Amino acid sequence: MTAIIIVAFLLIFVVVIGFAYWSFNGRINREVSGLLSGAKSGPGTVVTQEMLEGLPKPVQRYLAYSGVLGKKIPRTVCLKQVGKIRQSEKSAWMKLEAEEYYSTTPAGLIWKAFLPTKRFPLTLGRDAYLNGHGSMLIKMLSLIPLANATGTEIDQGSMMRYLNEMTWFPAAFLGENINWKAIDDTSAEVTLTHQGKSASATMYFDEEGKPINFIAKRYRMVGKKYDLETWSTPFTGHGEFEGLKLPVRGKAVWILKEGNLTYIELGITELEYD
Predict the structure, then answer these.
(1) CA separation for the pair 2, 150 (Å, rounded)
(2) Which helix (H) or strand (E) segment is 13 a member of?
(3) What is residue 43's predicted lDDT score, i.e. its pLDDT?
């Protein structure tokens, strides 16, 4: 009888977890469909040499290096990632696989993370930047909430993340919502304006035009509060997708008083436009 009870309990547990995953994953997929279908339609703007004129010299070098000339500014972007993540210096690294979806007009993103893998998602997470607002929802076994965050600080952090990840679709840096300001021969300030808000960062490039770092002030969640800290995302590897030279490996680092904290390392395995 005891064995029957245990088997019945396990079956119920599996069914509950399976339903929770189906429900949460389905919700994310519907959000993704809404994001992609809401992207502005049309033939797309083709990047010309004239569009680069007037930009800071390192930005011109960067965009020419990327190969955007003659290419269209994509309306939507889909990519896949593999990597590892942790919460703090004392936390163990955890493997993750992720899918990410973007709209360029209007600006928006959804990141769906499977920890440790898509085949074995003990934890399913979703970050989003939609309609000018950010949100984060992470559930263990797709059932137990580990994080559910919204608000002004999350809005700022999500907007900054979108600006940072435009390096995977660099032609969008020529959009009307972007402004560049010269600093020196190897860096420039970039500002994204959306829904009446702005986010600014400094991008760094090498002599060839290759992007090497992105540094900004971004809100970091610490317990139940937020601290405005320096955030850096060094690009550690480059490759080619969609006929463009893009960063394909990188990490995110909090520059803290007590020392630098690298909390995520990622590599791009697939990327597709429109």
Answers:
(1) 45
(2) helix 2-37
(3) 78
Q: Cα(150)–Cα(153) distance, rounded to whole angstroms?
A: 8
The pTM assigned to this predicted structure is 0.95
Q: Is the pLDDT of residue 12 over 80?
A: no
The two tokens of residue 176 are 């009307």
The domain at 2-273 falls in which architecture? Clam (2.50)
**Inter-residue contact 8 to 133 (CB < 8 Å):** no
Position 9 confidence tier, pLDDT thresholds 50, 70, 90: low
What's the CA gap between 79 and 172, in Å, rounded? 16
Which of 268, 273, 270 is CA-nearest to residue 236? 268
Q: Is 102 helix (H, G, I), strand (E, B) or coil?
A: strand
Distance CA 129, CA 112 (A): 12
- Residues with Cβ within 8 Å of residue 12, at least 6 apart in sequence: none
CB 261 within 8 Å of CB 181: no
Report domain extents, the chain.
Answer: 2-273
Tens of pLDDT, residues 221-267: 998 899 999 999 999 999 999 999 999 999 999 999 999 999 999 99
The amino acid at residue 103 is S
Look at residue 226 and give its three-state secondary structure: strand
> How much is the mean pLDDT over the chain?
95
Rounded-to-integer distance, Cα 172 and Cα 83, Å? 25
Radius of gyration of the CA atoms of the chain, in A: 20
Q: Which two tokens stand for residue 116?
A: 């440790």
Task: Report angle CA 52, 158, 251 to the nearest 5 degrees.
Answer: 75
Half-sphere exposure of residue 85: CA atoms within 13 angstroms, side-chain side: 15
